[in-house]
Write a structure and sequence with these properties.
alpha+beta, three-stranded antiparallel β-sheet, 3 helices, 6 strands, elongated
Length: 147
């Protein structure tokens, strides 16, 4: 009986360690690349927004990954919109009647493969099922097993 309790404890510890693995974050990092674009932009008097066209599509149309930095200290560039078809991106809160370089960073699809994207999309669900089933099956096997 003592061995069964010890093996059960080991299974539970191992299951807890599996929970700590950042599988979802690892898959996202594997699926994406960070892309940088630079644009030289001049605004006219009274105009505080600009439209630029990104070189690649934003991964999964997730605009939260778009980060813009201006080399003009008075600018506070803010993303207004992103067109998923044309990749046109509108930023506002720029200083009017000024020139600056906008550096835009965003995530893009690193794999360019629908098949891999499909597999990697369902993998976290499979991982969760494995993590939930492993301790149950292990403990049942220990409890019904013979000494």
């Amino acid at each position: 009986m003592g061995n069964k309790i010890f093996y059960g404890f080991l299974i539970l510890v191992f299951s807890a360690l599996l929970w700590l693995l950042p599988i979802t974050a690892l898959i996202y990092t594997f699926q994406t690349d960070v892309t940088n674009n630079q644009f030289y932009v001049t605004t006219s008097p009274g105009i505080t927004d600009t439209t630029v066209t990104l070189s690649d599509s934003v991964y999964d149309d997730d605009t939260s990954t778009i980060v813009v930095i201006s080399d003009l200290n008075s600018d506070i560039p803010t993303l207004v919109s992103y067109n998923t078809t044309s990749r046109a991106t509108v930023f506002n809160s720029l200083t009017d009647n000024a020139s600056r370089t906008l550096t835009i960073t965003y995530d893009t699809d690193a794999l360019n493969s629908g098949a891999w994207d499909s597999v990697l999309t369902i993998f976290p669900k499979i991982w969760m099922i494995l993590i939930l089933c492993f301790p149950v099956v292990g403990l049942v096997a220990i409890l019904i097993g013979k000494n």
